[in-house]
UniProtKB/TrEMBL annotation:
Residues the entry annotates as binding substrate: K124, D156, T196, E197, Y198, E199
GO cellular component: tRNA methyltransferase complex
Protein name: tRNA (guanine-N(7)-)-methyltransferase
UniProt xrefs under PROSITE patterns: SAM_MT_TRMB
Biological or metabolic pathway of the protein: tRNA modification; N(7)-methylguanine-tRNA biosynthesis
Source organism per UniProt: Lactobacillus gigeriorum DSM 23908 = CRBIP 24.85
HAMAP family referenced in this protein's UniProt entry, alphabetically: tRNA_methyltr_TrmB
GO molecular function terms noted in the UniProt entry: tRNA (guanine(46)-N7)-methyltransferase activity
Top-level taxon in the UniProt lineage: Bacteria
Residues given in the record as S-adenosyl-L-methionine binding sites: E46, E71, D98, D120
Length: 221
């Protein structure tokens, strides 16, 4: 999702360093205890949050958890921040940074869940390494997630979904849930699902939404 630059968003982000971490130094792990009131709560991360409909809804629904929206674009961070401030979501932090450095910003075994929602499919073969389910990214997620941590992935792109299934399987991951039509699963699954902006757009046109939940093998001690 490429958004037009919005001066108000840049200004808002700059005015709230307590809520938005900008361009963090990848050589230093962030001390999240300075960002959350209770660091013992479960931590969940969305990689590529866009306008933030998904992550802000999660934070509002589960006040007993901590959430981080990892987003590269300043305008998107500003839109998320505006919602965070309006809804007073003290359990949500925003980090404007590159997902390729995720393992530099979070301690080993620190996150309970990572969400990948409607990531750029990078369809050309020469761009394979940029896909967020490529093996180098999976290695980073494995480092950050706890042993029982979960990776949740949604997309409308059948090619990316097929690639991701193969990539995760080759990495030795265990699948807890796989769907090729998420919005027509059992009622309880549909009710628990939180739509992103893209998801709502595509699903309203009758397009299938692909989803999977997977876990990594237990790390060696």
């Amino acid at each position: 999702m490429r958004l037009r630059n919005k001066p108000w968003a840049v200004k808002l982000v700059n005015e709230h360093p307590e809520s938005v971490i900008q361009d963090p130094d990848p050589s230093k792990v962030i001390d999240w205890s300075e960002r959350f009131a209770d660091i013992s709560r479960p931590l969940e991360i969305e990689v590529g949050s866009g306008k933030g409909r998904f992550i802000t809804t999660l934070a509002e629904r589960y006040p007993e958890k901590n959430f981080v929206a990892l987003e590269l674009q300043t305008t998107a961070a500003g839109i998320i921040l505006r919602t965070k401030l309006e809804k007073k979501l003290d359990n949500l932090q925003i980090m404007r940074a590159d997902a390729a450095d995720i393992d530099a910003f979070f301690a080993v075994n620190s996150a309970d869940k990572i969400y990948l929602n409607f990531s750029d499919p990078w369809p050309k073969s020469r761009h394979e390494k940029r896909r967020l389910t490529y093996k180098s990214f999976l290695q980073k997620y494995q480092t950050v997630l706890k042993d029982n941590g979960l990776l949740e992935f949604k997309t409308d792109n059948s090619g990316l979904f097929a690639y991701s299934l193969k990539s995760l399987n080759n990495f030795g991951m265990q699948f807890d849930f796989v769907s090729v039509d998420l919005h027509h699963e059992a009622d309880e699954i549909v009710e628990q699902n939180i739509e992103t902006e893209y998801e709502h757009k595509f699903a309203s046109k009758g397009n299938p939404i692909y989803a999977l939940h997977a876990k990594f093998q237990t790390k060696d001690l």
